Amino acid sequence: MTHPRTFRFGVQVNTAASAAEWRAKARRIEDLGYSTLFMPDHFDNTPLAPMVAIAFAAEATTTLRVGHLVLGNDYKHPAIVAKEAATIDLLSDGRLELGLGAGWMQVDYDQLGLPYDSAGTRIERLEEAVAVVKGCFADGPFDFAGAHYRITGYDAQPAPVQQPHPPLVIGGGGPKILRLAGRHADIVGINPNLRAGAITADAATDTLAEVTRRKLGWIREGAGDRFDDLELQIRYFVAAITDDARGLAEVLAPGFGVAPDEALQSAVACIGTVDEVCDLLVQRREEWGVSYCVFGEDDVEAFAPVVARLAGT
Amino acid sequence: MTVSNPNRRFRFGVIMPRAASGAEARERAVRAEALGYSTLYVPDHFVDHPLGPIPTVAAVAAWTTTLNVGTLVLGNDYRHPVVLAKEAATVDLLSEGRFEFGIGAGWMTVDYEKAGLPLDRPGVRIDRLRESVQVLRGLWGEGPFTLHGEHYTVTELDGDPMPHRPGGPKLVIGGGGPKVLTFAAQQADIVGINANLKGGSANDPSTAPSMNPVSTDDKLRWVREAAGDRYADIEIQALVGFLMVTDDARAIAEGMAGVFQATPDEVLDSPVGLVGTVDEIVESLERRRERWDMTYHVIPVEQMDAFAPVVDRLAGR
């Protein structure tokens, strides 16, 4: 019998130098049994535009799902996002996972000349954007009058193939965003808190096991009855297949500002032999309910044996 | 006979605002390529134009190998130019230089109303388009780019990825009024000769007469004057919204004369219409090239089969 929280795996990829390389990457990820190719959305250090690159990747593959991890809500109007998302879902015959985030990387805002509002305002705007996006995905015209967006009698097209809409991925690290994700998302990413506007030691210490349990509490608060229907996701930023986990932890720990043992317990760390990693992922599924594991593209090959063993179980 | 300036040779595009499924869209793209069309374009509106242009052109590029893909045109006000620059460069990279980036000032009132976007007066929208093109070009070029403009502030941003085509994809700018056409003539690689849409709707009574041959003469005069020396480097494009391969062009033209507020002959030579037998259409297209240098015609994708004999006769010539 399969577990109610079936394992699946994703890869977050952010670039390729050519069309041939991008196609090859997408196909390799598909062939290795990963479920989903995700792309981030930044202007600094993230070359390919996600809406374009995932649309292309979907058409270069046949079963691979594609998604954003995640779109910065402030970079595009949600009515446009919904239209583009529904288009990808239509053209890929229902393979999109739409990732939305409040936006956090301050350098993006600075370079674009966008106001970097308080986290509270960005999150409030995201919640409105989620309502707009869902309104667009639903049948018939809708109105929305919020503090940030105003929609009047808009019957958005095309209709997505996945009904009622492609799964929404919302991730975060703070209480407000995780409650919001619990209320609205289908897939909730448990992330470091990026309140500093950049990746700092503060983000690293925010990933320890104890903090993670607190985050699960916030998701539960937001989700209420629908908690069991949510898929919980972690993006493993620190991942390695090694028979010397302890040795690697000693190297990595100073970057986290924690002791080596604590580094190994970080929610975004996944380090060990294939057996150890499989045990760890099973254990986290039991403890936290996390079944959707996302790796960086450098880890795709190394973690393929883990995917082969756990995906679909 | 082939004309010596490649920008004065005929080529043809199809425009695809909708598709019932991914399979249908893919079939059409592959068929357009096989029939000798040069480009598949996707428009950008909130109403009556279901497909989102950005992901659609990416998908079409993935399905095809030589077909160009393009936007006809993106509404500048709907996305930040930094976002657009990155998306356009990504399409150009992944399509290996097959992207034609069409952008316009935005005009369809209903788009703005439905999405709650402020609809500024045309002058402001055109100024913003001008600045947007500066941002696009800046980010498609080498090195970090800064612009402290009236509408956009970009600070030390090094555009990434670099487009496949050095300097960026071909720029398509279309319009019907003197301001936009002057700007297009100065900046674009492909200038679209459109109706003047100051009425905010294609059904506004001012729209159709602005596509009469005599109005079109005015438009080309503005383009030639503004382009100066670069005029030979520009392709002149028309979007043919009304296309009918028929033995009785005359009757159709007489029926349409009222709408166009023009004589039947003028209707038959309007750049938005192509009505007649294949021979008559070929002759009319030859006249349009003679009179307006108009060589790049975009037709509705649904009619690509009916129009294929014309493409066969004229494409590349």
What does this structure look like?
The complex is a heterodimer of chains A (313) and B (317). Chain A has 313 residues and is of the alpha/beta class. Chain A has helices at 19-31, 50-59, 78-91, 106-112, 119-137, 175-184, 201-205, 209-223, 245-256, 260-265, 274-288, 304-310; strands spanning 8-12, 36-39, 65-68, 71-72, 96-101, 142-145, 150-154, 168-172, 187-190, 231-236, 238-241, 269-272, 290-296. In chain A, strands 1-2-3-5-8-9-10-13 form an eight-stranded parallel barrel, surrounded by seven helices. Chain A has a two-stranded antiparallel ribbon with strand order 6-7. In chain A, helix 2 links the parallel strand 2 (36-39) and strand 3 (65-68). In chain A, helix 6 packs across helix 8 (209-223). In chain A, 53% of the residues are buried. The model of chain A has no long low-confidence stretch (mean pLDDT 93). With 317 residues, chain B is an alpha/beta fold. Chain B has a single domain, classed as TIM Barrel (Alpha-Beta Barrel). In chain B, the strands form three sheets. An eight-stranded parallel beta barrel of chain B has the order 1-2-3-5-8-9-10-13, surrounded by seven helices. In chain B, strands 6-7 form a two-stranded antiparallel sheet. Chain B is globular and about 60 Å long. Classes of the chains: A alpha/beta (313), B alpha/beta (317).
What descriptors fit this protein?
A: 313 residues; alpha/beta; two-stranded antiparallel ribbon; 12 helices; B: alpha/beta; TIM Barrel; 8-stranded parallel β-barrel; two-stranded antiparallel sheet; 13 strands
Tally of individual helices of chain A: 12
In CATH, the topology of chain B is named TIM Barrel
Q: SSE string of chain A, helix = H, strand = E?
A: EHEHEEHEHHEEEHEHHEEHHEHEH
Shape of chain A: globular
Number of strands of chain A: 13
Mean pLDDT of chain A: 93
Percentage of residues assigned to helices of chain A: 40-55%
What overall form of chain B do the CA principal axes indicate?
globular
How would you characterize the largest beta sheet of chain A? 8 strands, parallel, barrel
Report how far the terminal alpha carbons of chain B are from each other.
Answer: 6 Å
Category by helix and strand content of chain B? alpha/beta
Strand order of the largest sheet of chain B: 1-2-3-5-8-9-10-13
Reported for the largest beta sheet of chain B, the result is: 8 strands, parallel, barrel
Radius of gyration of chain A: 19 Å
